[in-house]
């Protein structure tokens, strides 16, 4: 009974976190991304899901805000870093919290994809592990989830009824 209740509680919490991570995407047009590296530690950890509000077109994000942008040094990739400096042309110099120096290439205003508004911790860990080419831990997490599903399906109690 305790195992089943615990499994249901954990699964309910995970489902709630997943819904919380997807509701702003579906309802408000926000963007959800899984953090892939440790460059923003301790504020953001690999496996966290961050929700980004579309950037306001009439103003530049402020110093200290976390932004999502097209990575100027790796075409086709996204970058999540904190605004370190706003340039006169509204370009941005960003910096990862765990990095010792700011990023060398400014981000153009048109490359800005969003401003961070919500962090859902660890919910994207299987995705992060898979993308980091660590499929064994990802599969172990997924097998653990499958075990939780099986345990949650157990009846809460069993009674022998006699007529």
From TrEMBL:
Predominant location category: membrane
GO molecular function: signal peptidase activity
Assigned keywords, A-Z: Hydrolase, Membrane, Transmembrane, Transmembrane helix
Top-level EC class: hydrolase
Membrane-spanning residues: 136-156
InterPro entries, alphabetized: LexA/Signal_pep-like_sf, Peptidase_S26, Peptidase_S26B
Subcellular location: Membrane
Enzyme Commission identifier(s): 3.4.21.89
Name this protein carries in UniProt: Signal peptidase I
């Amino acid at each position: 009974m305790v195992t089943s209740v615990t499994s249901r509680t954990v699964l309910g919490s995970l489902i709630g976190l997943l819904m919380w991570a997807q509701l702003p995407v579906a309802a408000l047009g926000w963007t959800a991304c899984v953090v892939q590296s440790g460059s923003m530690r301790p504020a953001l950890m690999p496996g966290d899901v961050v929700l980004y509000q579309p950037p306001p077109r009439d103003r530049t994000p402020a110093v200290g805000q976390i932004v999502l942008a097209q990575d100027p040094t790796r075409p086709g990739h996204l970058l999540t870093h904190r605004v370190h400096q706003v340039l006169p042309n509204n370009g941005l110099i960003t910096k990862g919290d765990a990095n010792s120096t700011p990023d060398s290439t400014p981000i153009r205003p048109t490359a800005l994809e969003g401003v961070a508004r919500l962090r859902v911790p660890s919910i994207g860990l299987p995705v992060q592990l898979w993308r980091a080419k660590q499929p064994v831990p990802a599969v172990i997490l997924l097998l653990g989830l499958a075990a939780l599903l099986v345990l949650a399906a157990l009846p809460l109690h069993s009674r022998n009824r006699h007529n």
